[in-house]
Batch of 2 targets.
Target 1
Amino acid sequence: MKTGKNARQELILRLIREKDISTQEDLTRLVREAGFEATQATCSRDIKELGIIKITLPNKTTKYAVLDRTGDVAPGRLLAVFSNSLVSVQAAMNILVIKTLPGMAQAAASALDSMHLQDVVGTIAGDDTVFCAASGIDEAKALVMTISDMMDRGTSADGTV
């Protein structure tokens, strides 16, 4: 059995990028099948350290996605800034209107951009409001669910932010 943390985390990133994985149980099973010693708690810690988030797709299913690093800022830290600065989110057709704490919109937009979510076309930030263009109306609704989930849960240990 392989035990290296770095190798295990590299595998987890590859699995998340290549497969639609929606539960820690599925991820833990795939990591074990690849020959690594892993428990659900181990995978949970890895999810948080690696900045992996759970997103809602337009068809209302969920899956894990990798939050890419921006400069030298750790993904988990960026997620914390994002989720802790949000006040509300709602869709207006394919545009999300995200309200933040005063002065936090640019940081929130930067964090959202760094997530490289497939259906985010781009963001514009003011002082306490972010406009986020989604690729379509259904995609905007799914993004509202993903972002609302982040607001509701904060950065939890299970990576569902």
Target 2
Amino acid sequence: MHYFILLWLVISTFQDWRTRQVSNWLTLPVLVLAGTFRITGFVEGNLLSTVIIALAALVGWRLHLIGGADAKGLIALALLDSRLAILAWAGAVMLIGVKWLSARCQAKQKPHAPDTPQPDTSIPGFLGFLLGTLAYLVLR
């Protein structure tokens, strides 16, 4: 199953990188499949941590802190293994932190004119999920 998750994350990351969106045809089937696996007992795990991660993802989405595809991806990962979802989320947060620090350092080095458009500093969430998942698999 881990190879399936990695393949899904690689494809989703590629689409997220190129378009800054992940299509529903990539997120919804995996979300449904993960829910089915959880309901039928194919995967087991701590239900409370899964619910907490799912609620946090939904709150993040409603507050516009993460995108809808990111929320669906995190919930799918939490349904499969909450430890996996936690490391995937941590990967995304660390990647955003690195990008933010890099942007701050660049801003201090090069002052921009107020009317100069700023470069896009957004990070594809699925890239962080992929890195966190790789860390999970290495640590496992």
